[in-house]
Here is the input.
Amino acid sequence: MTFEQWLLLGVPFLTGGLALLGSWYGSWLGRKTEHQQWLRNQKQTAYSEFLGAFDALYLETGLPKVDDISVKYMVFDLVSKHGRLSVVSPDDVTQLSARLTDESWEMGQAARGVGPDAGERYPLRERAKATKRELVFAVRRDLSVRSRPGLRGQGAADQSNRIASQQCSGMNESMKRSWADLEPRSIEMAIQLWHQLGSQEFIGRTRFEESHRYVVIDQGQQIASKPLLAMAFQLQFACGKDGPPRLRGGEQTRTILDGLGYDLVDTLGEIAQDKASPVRIAISPSTKFWWANQSTNFEPVYDDGTLWAPLKDRRGQQVDHWRTLDSVLPGDLVFHYDSPEIRGLSRVATKPQRAYPPAVMTMC
Here is the structure.
């Protein structure tokens, strides 16, 4: 057979073979693309369910009083969702999600008041939140989601730090937060944290100094207004002490707290208010009222800003009504009676303590 005859005979076979090869390759490519899309959908579902379960647990553990049963079920739900996630995720996501699961378990135990870290609920929440930010970055990288234009080419650590720093400070214009976004629930959570930590540690976790003049009264305790607002902001938006916006105090603080249903008390005797408004005295359900008879000692002690009761009389005897002073708490109100009229009204600022009275005071 001549070359032309072989060519005429081979062309149909070659064409058929190429057609079969193209069909097989197209089928293989289609199956591969379909599998990749299926795997991506599985990852998206697993990631969103796991992160959603963590967010629900995180919010629950931030409440002043948690439901034991709810926290336990939320932790178990998170563990089960981690199992599905670990099947479809790459190694880095699996490792971070496993770490977050362990930290969530410790966070849940602390919120329930059990285990060795029972008193470390809020530090554990902050640690878990930081791990979650790392996990979110790893998930976005796995799904090839770009955070924003201009991030390509930067190192992973640089991107992670940038994202973390924007969580609360609002450097990204679309994520800005302001004092107007605060919710009453966040103030209540911050007040409960004040009672748990004490004033010194509480204030140390914010960037504001203690405000001695303007306070919120709760359970007889004076809570510094600016640190209170800062902590409420940090709890609501899960950010550090540099997250809250600038706060001038005074009128701005009063406006924010008034809008959230809290009265700002001026411990120097004036209630923060508009000058045209009538004088108001802020009280809470725990505020107690006391009556002090001071017929001879009103002026020296009232001008001194103190209230006194002897420990014993001249015979060395204790008098029952003098011991009442031990029950007076910060935030309580005292009516000062100097016959024949009430001469003054004061708010208690500190708990009673032993001390020497003013020299001009007449003792029994």
Summary: The chain has ten helices and six strands. Residues 16 and 174 are 58 Å apart (CA to CA). The mean pLDDT is 75.
